[in-house]
Amino acid sequence: MDINHISVIAIDGPSASGKGTVAHRVSGSLGFHYLDSGKLYRLVALVATRAGVDLADEEVLADIAEHLNVIFKDKEIRLGNEDVSDIIRTETCGNGASRIAAYLQVRKALLSRQRAFRRNPGLVADGRDMGSVVFPDATLKIFLIASSETRAQRRYKQLMEKGVDVNITTILQDIRERDARDSGRSVSPLKQGSDTSSIDTTLLNITEVVNEVLRQYTEICAKNSDINEC
Ligand code: DC
Predict the structure, then answer these.
(1) Residue 38 belongs to what H/E stretch?
(2) Cβ atoms 22, 210 nearer than 8 A
(3) Which atom, in ligand 1's list, is nearest to the CA of 130?
(4) Model confidence over 143-196: pLDDT tens digits?
(5) Whose CA is nearest to atom 11 of ligand 1?
(6) Phi (first) and psi of residue 54, to 5 degrees
(7) Which residue in 50, 142, 149, 156 has the fewest CB atoms around it within 10 Å?
(8) Whose CA is nearest to atom 1 of ligand 1?
(9) Looking at the DSSP assignment, which residues form a beta bridge with residue 141?
(10) Dist CA 219 CA 200 (whole Å)
(11) What is the pLDDT of residues 14-62, one digit of tens each?
(12) Which residues are registered as beta bridge partners of 199?
């Protein structure tokens, strides 16, 4: 079967826009596979940092990306024999990921790995360039937006609930820096394409956003009966 007929819902947006939670819930609701592409960049940053690699050394970083020995199993992410699911969520890994994600060679090395997630019955993928680069023919392309203050509040609440002592001003500053880096890079910058549907989540809760994505997907499927598994 031509894999290009397998549905993909691409959900892009800035840090802390809620895209991970939304994408995960949409995939659960449709019984689709799920790709959190940021995890791949975080994994490269983790391996590089542990190996003492300079995060400006594009060639070595691309080599690490090419040879990542990672297994995604349910909620667990294994690097070799180690479960790294928690450690890659840290802000240190997130910032490292944002830095190394600016390199074309690193992005190229991760491309086929991401595309391999496109399997029946369908895929929901989240990141920064899912609709623009990785799955340009996605069935539905969503771009989530929310003010930086709202995103900082959400992240603050999340971390406090986990018992992590954090400062909201630092979080807001971190989010703004990450936005500037992710949107300002020359390679696959975070930006809304003309073929995406934007959802401003500032005043919406997760369920409302999930329902809106599902509504748009159902609408597209109703118009295109040839889309697989709609
Ligand atoms: O979504 P996240 O916070 O886990 O992503 C971490 C970093 O990885 C983010 O700051 C930018 C980068 N990234 C990217 O450039 N392209 C993607 N498709 C996903 C993440």
Answers:
(1) helix 37-50
(2) yes
(3) 18
(4) 999 999 999 999 999 889 988 888 999 999 999 998 999 899 999 898 899 999
(5) 98
(6) -70, 125
(7) 50
(8) 38
(9) 10
(10) 19
(11) 988 999 999 999 999 999 999 999 999 999 999 999 999 999 999 999 9
(12) 144
Nearest residue (by CA) to ligand 1, atom 6, is 38
Query: d(Cα 173, Cα 150) in Å, to the nearest integer?
Result: 13
Structure tokens at 166: 């954090």
| Fold of the CATH domain 3-219 | Rossmann fold (3.40.50)
Q: How far is the CA of 226 from the centre of ligand 1 (A)?
A: 32
The model's pTM is: 0.92
Please check whether residue 140 is in contact with residue 213, taking contact to mean a CB–CB distance below 8 angstroms.
yes
How far apart are alpha carbons 227 and 85 in whole angstroms? 34
Mutate to test the pocket of ligand 1, among 37, 124, 185 (most ligand atoms within 8 A of CB): 37
Report d(CA 184, CA 1) in Å as an integer: 38
| Positive or negative torsion for Cα 65, 67, 68, 70 | positive
Residues 6+ apart with CB under 8 A from 132: 12, 188, 191, 193
Q: Where are the beta strands (DSSP E) in the chain?
A: 8-12, 33-36, 70-73, 76-79, 82-83, 123-127, 140-145, 197-200
Report d(CA 228, CA 226) in Å as an integer. Answer: 6
Element (H, E) at 44: helix 37-50
**Residues in the ligand 1 pocket, defined by CB under 6 Å:** 15, 37-38, 41-42, 94, 97-98, 101, 127-129, 178, 182
